[in-house]
Hints:
alpha/beta; five-stranded parallel sheet; binds phosphoric acid mono(formamide)ester; 2 domains; 305 residues; Rossmann fold
Amino acid sequence: MSKFDHVIESQQFNEDTLKELFDLADEVKNNPTRYSTPGKIMASLFYEPSTRTRLSFESAMLRLGGSVISTENAKEFSSFSKGESLEDSIKVISGYADIIALRHFEIGAAKRAASVSNIPVVNAGDGAGQHPTQALLDLYTIQSYFPQVDGLTVAMVGDLRYGRTTRSLCYLLGRFFKVKIIFVAPPICRMADDIKGYLDKQSCTWEELEFEEALSLSDCIYMTRVQKERFLHMENYEKAANKYQINKDSLPLINKNAIIMHPLPRLKEINPEIDEDPRMIYFEQAQNGVWIRMALILMLLNGNN
Ligand code: CP
C-alpha cells in the first residue's frame, strides 16, 4: 500500500492510490471483520458540526477494533475556547492518538495541523476549502454504478462557491477521467475560477447550464445544500437558497439510468417523497463513507507503522 503522511486535499491521489484505496474498500466492505488495527486510537477533532463525517470516521475506527477520543464541538468544548491555537492542540493530541480526523472552519487548517503533527492528519473538511474523504467516497460510489466513469456527464448543483465537496470532487474527476461537468448554481454561488482553470488545464469539459437542462443531460446529478453558515449577509443567502429541487415533477426529466447523489445534509434540494426511486442513492453514498474511511485509516496506519 502506498504511503501517505496525511490526507489534506484530493489532488494527493493518483490513479494507483485511488485504485488501491477502492480495492481495499471493496475488500473491507465484503469482509469487514478481516481487517483490524487493534490498540490504535483515533482523535476526532471537529470545530464544525457533522453527522456523517465524524460518526462514519468513528464507526470506521471502532469496526477496525481501534478506539476513539473525540471533541464533537471543539469550538466550544476544547481549549480553543480559552484561546489555544490549533497548532498547540495538534501537538498535544499527537501524543494521545495515532491518527487525527480534523474538521475546521478555516480553509488551510488541515494543512497547518499536518505541518506540526507527527501522526497522520485527515482533512474532514476545512471551511470552504476541501473535503477529500467525501470526494473519495463520492467517486467510489459513482464507480460502483459506472465502472468506466469516462464519458459520463456529471451535474453539480447548488452552492458551488462555498461547497468543499464539489471542489474536491472536481479535482478527482477532472484529473483522471474524461467526464463532462455541468455546473448549476445561483449567480452568487457559481463555481470559483480556480476550479474552472484547473479543469481547463486538465482538458476537462465543463459548462454552466440551467437546472432543467442539466437534469436531462446528466448521468450523475450531484445536489448540494446552499450553506447558510458560509454567508456573511443573510439577504445573499435568501437570494441563493431553495432555487433547485428534485421532486416528483422532475423525475420524468431525469435519465432512466442516472444516479442522484447528495453529500447530505439536505434541506429542500431533494424532496423525501422520491427517496424510494432507485436513482436516489444518497443514503448508500453515505454508507460508503464507512468503507472508504476504514480503508483510508488502514492505509495511513499501515504506512506509518
Ligand atoms: N457530507 C458531510 O460532510 O456531512 P456532515 O457535515 O454531516 O459530516
